[in-house]
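Section 3.1 - Work completed
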Amino acid sequence: MTLNKETLIGIIESIAKKLIDSEKILTELDSHIGDADCGAGIRRGFEAVLSGLGELRDYDPPDILKKVGFTLASTIGGTSGAMLGTGFIETGKSLSNSTDISIGEIANALEDALTIIKRRGGNTEVGDKTLVDALQPAIESIKASAEGGEQNIESVLEKACAAAREGSDRTVDMVARKGRASYLGDRSKGHRDPGSVYITLMFEASLERIKNSQ
């Protein structure tokens, strides 16, 4: 199965609505190890994405992703805005001018974006207690599915969601080594990283959209 423009826009809409609805959860998580502004920033960014949803139909998938990325980067602010903006923009760049995107192309584009995200985050790695702890396992899962010849996008996303959740779960017992939470040292342990949560929610929203469209 390939991912076309209408499906992509539907996924973006689903992600935006789910993250807007998750503002309180993200704020609560960020209040323990951050500045308690994660939820408000995420809501602000994805409300801007929703308001411009109609315009996205004028673009092909790569440019849709880049436009969403620029919107998020300019409206969320802080680390979350930079990382999410970078993720969407770099994924769009890696897709070239594709109109119907295969699972293999998705995997490669996400992998390219992850490389830039990690670099922009100060060479962030799994174990640093950041969004990478959920994002990298999910992308690795999609890559493995593509390399195994999997063509069912619902199945691919189910595995990616499970990988993201497991990665987010592991952040609870981590001591933060990057970002605002790293200033707390050992006190950051025992709290889930909010970035890993919104990454997981994004994959869950994508899966929900695919399921509802079939």
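Second construct:
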Amino acid sequence: MSDAANKYSIMISGSVEPLAEALRTSGLGRYISGISAVPPGANLERALILHPASILVITEDAALRYAPAAYKKGCLAVLLVNDRVPHLHTYIDSGVFCCTRAELPATLPQLLAACTRLRETRGEAEALRGKLDEARLISRAKLLLISRFKMSEDEAHRFLERSAMDNCTKLRNAAESVIRTYEE
């Protein structure tokens, strides 16, 4: 895995110093590609849209309500660093990491490990989604060939394979061509 694949960008809502100090003392700074700060009271959702981050760290009470939504918006991880979090179970149930300032140095390695696993899982899911889309496209093309030319499924599949080989292209491209040509 490349160095870039092992690096994470961090956005901090609230005080930057506890995280910066924890990164310095833990030696985990080499895994961080950049840290950006959102001023207190700023629109956190807008900040994440403008400057996507792998990890969102929330240290201010005003931003707590955004923690569960940030995870769903694409952050690999959300970390609440707060010594007094009301309804802590609500955040944990949403997949949000929670720790106190004192626990931050011990939590960071776990957080980065979880981000690595999640990044790999998202990559695998994306690859599977692509394969599923391709299978649907090929099936749609075969159905068109079956309905238009009264081919069997095997004949339609062989037609697509032959078309792909004749044109030195992928089966997906042959299926797209059939769909463009014969779909109404």
